[in-house]
Design brief:
This protein is α+β, with helices and mostly antiparallel strands. It has a domain at about 85-125 and about 190-235 and about 335-505: Glucose Oxidase, domain 3 (2-Layer Sandwich), CATH 3.30.560.10. It is built from 14 helices and 31 strands. Strands 5, 6, 16, 17, 18, 19 and 31 form a 7-stranded mixed β-sheet that branches. Strands 12, 23, 24, 25, 26, 29 and 30 form a 7-stranded antiparallel β-sheet that branches. Strand 17 (about 260-265) and strand 18 form a beta hairpin. The protein starts with 10 loop residues before the first strand and ends with a helix. Mean pLDDT is about 95; it is low at about 1-40.
Length: about 575
């Protein structure tokens, strides 16, 4: 194959771009390299990373650190200059941002009354870590031991803990469970809140242990979340991992690069084709192409490149390169069902938001102290509990927040409101992600198949019932006026399940669409190589063989940390 050569264009680097919030502090936006116009040179890199999200930024940092390897990082979205990215509560402003968010929708979900569920995914440097709720949660030790039992040697808890520790800068200090020298800031909430304190006390009253560290020895209990933030600023993977790479001449970062397909020479991935500002460009890999585009986009790119089901792809006009029937299959996601309460005291974010002086005070507290609602993650307080005693570990996570709304990203309710949601940690339901055509700009078809098993239906109902007992415990009595949703009239199991079908939605943790394993049907092997294809690995949430018990961003960063070690070891 003859590889085209294109003229070189000047690159520019933004080292000191800042957003001024007050005279006391400003934050630096992650610097990026970008080509000013025209086509990128069709040269070879040692590694091409597709996707500058939670995993891609880690890989870019680690693979370029020695200076021995020439690395290219491609991102479909723009640099992370929008100031709302860096303010923790800014996720509400980014929930459906047309430039920073892929704004996916599922196909109609049969068990959710045919509703199409909105799936926000980050389309910006930092990916979903730049628009998510900032919760730092690893899941349970048992999750990773189950991965190992499923054939993924090297992915048990004892294997992955060192990578969790290596990734983090824990403000509490180092310990058996935590590290302090990593790029990713992990910190406590900036301040407590009386509603959260009451919720935690209510959890203890109903039998849950007080838990000050959900990422420590045991997950069960109630307490405050830790967050991926430092001094009141979001610490995305772009902030933590890309910012330190400024000045590395062997790392190039290109934004606005929409990857359309891999370049294949037989069964070897040799490069990537992408479109930037309407111009199609090609780059090539001496070593490997690393797909880190996420659980939706990574299988999409594989299928567009002819790697997928041999019956499906030709029918869509895609030439089959390698038959891999489980590309896009086995999708899992966490579903959440919410309780919305009206507070008896004006202590919620709703009250501040609907007051001119309240909004001014929120802005002032954040600008001067980096405190207040603008510094809070999407989950403020948290609980993990079992829906029945026979379980070894919790099967429900609760996110408790001091505001309420009909849907995330929409206006807050006019009343004093707060919200608590249940999330089934280990759903059995599986869906899939597949391209609808050979058009790389057409969104893939996403089917999550929520609530498609009896276990999932029963667990969500039991979770809501137990959450109600916490909300109605004496410790919260002075703050609770009434339950607005679903309301006291919805009481029996049948009605609660109907409420879930009508209102439940994603909590934004898609994974497993390129699941790793050792059986013939696995898309990737435990060293994250695409089975049957050379020069190609997938490194993101899609390789999880099953969901972890909690928010997944920390696990994705761990996966990339471990993958970088595997790749560099293979390169020796």
């Amino acid at each position: 194959m003859t590889r085209p050569r294109f003229p070189v264009f000047e690159t520019r680097q933004f080292d000191n771009l800042t957003f001024e919030c007050s005279q006391r502090a400003s934050f630096p936006v992650c610097s990026v390299l970008w080509h000013s116009c025209g086509a990128v040179v069709g040269i070879e890199f040692d590694y091409i990373i597709v996707g500058a999200g939670s995993a891609g930024c880690v890989l870019a940092n680690r693979l370029s650190a020695s200076g021995k390897h020439k690395v290219l990082l491609l991102e479909a979205g723009p640099p992370d200059r929008n100031p709302w990215i860096h303010i923790p509560m800014g996720y509400g402003k980014l929930f459906s941002h047309p430039e920073l968010n892929w704004r996916y929708q599922t196909a109609p979900e049969p068990e959710l009354n045919g509703r199409s569920i909105y799936h926000p995914r980050g389309k910006v440097l930092g990916g979903s870590s730049s628009i998510n709720g900032l919760v730092y949660m690893r899941g349970q030790h048992r999750d990773y031991d189950l991965w190992r039992q499923m054939g993924c040697d090297g992915w048990g808890w004892d294997d992955v803990l060192p990578y969790f520790k290596r990734s983090m800068d824990q403000t509490r200090g180092g310990s058996t469970w935590h590290g302090t020298d990593g790029p990713l800031a992990v910190s406590d909430q900036r301040e407590t809140h009386p509603l959260c304190d009451a919720f935690i006390a209510a959890g203890v009253e109903t039998g849950l242990p007080l838990n000050s560290d959900f990422n420590g020895a045991d997950q069960e209990g109630v307490g405050y979340f830790q967050t991926t933030a430092r001094n009141g600023w979001r610490c995305s993977s772009a902030t933590g991992y890309l910012r330190p790479t400024r000045g590395r001449k062997n790392l190039e970062i290109i934004t606005g690069a929409h990857v359309t397909r891999l370049i294949m020479e037989g069964l070897r991935a040799t490069g990537v084709r992408f479109i930037r500002e309407g111009i199609e460009e090609e780059v090539f890999a001496r070593g490997e192409v690393l797909l880190s585009a996420g659980a939706i986009n990574s299988p999409q790119i594989l299928e567009l490149s002819g790697i997928g089901d041999g019956d499906r792809l030709p029918a869509l006009g895609v030439e089959l390169v390698h038959h891999a029937p489980n590309v896009g299959a086995k999708l899992q996601d966490h579903l959440q069902a919410r309780l919305v309460m009206q507070a008896s005291k004006p202590v919620t974010v709703n009250d501040l938001y609907h007051s001119t002086w309240g909004r001014i005070s929120m802005a002032a507290r954040y600008a001067l102290l980096r405190k207040g609602p603008l510094a809070v993650s999407a989950g403020y307080a948290c609980a993990f509990f079992k829906t029945h005693d026979a379980l070894e570990t919790p099967d429900i996570q609760v996110h408790f927040i001091c505001f309420s709304t009909d849907k995330m990203g929409e206006a807050l309710h006019p009343f004093s409101g707060f919200t608590a949601s249940v999330c089934q940690l280990r759903p059995e339901s599986r869906g899939d992600v597949h391209i609808a055509s050979a058009d790389p700009f057409l969104q893939p078809v996403i089917r999550c198949n929520y609530l498609s098993t009896e276990t999932d239906r029963r667990t969500n109902v039991e979770g809501l019932k137990k959450l109600r007992r916490i909300i109605n415990a004496p410790a919260l009595a002075s703050f609770l006026d009434r339950e607005m949703e679903p309301g006291s009239s919805v009481g029996n199991d049948e009605d609660l399940l109907a409420y879930c079908r009508e209102t439940a939605s994603t909590i934004y943790h898609p994974c497993a669409t390129c699941a790793m394993g050792t059986d013939r049907g696995s898309v990737t092997s435990p060293d994250l190589k695409v089975n049957g294809v050379d020069g190609l690995r997938v490194i993101d949430a899609s390789i999880m063989p099953r969901l972890v018990s909690g928010n997944i961003n920390a696990a994705v960063i761990m996966i990339a940390e471990k993958a970088a070690d595997i790749i560099l070891s293979d390169a020796r």
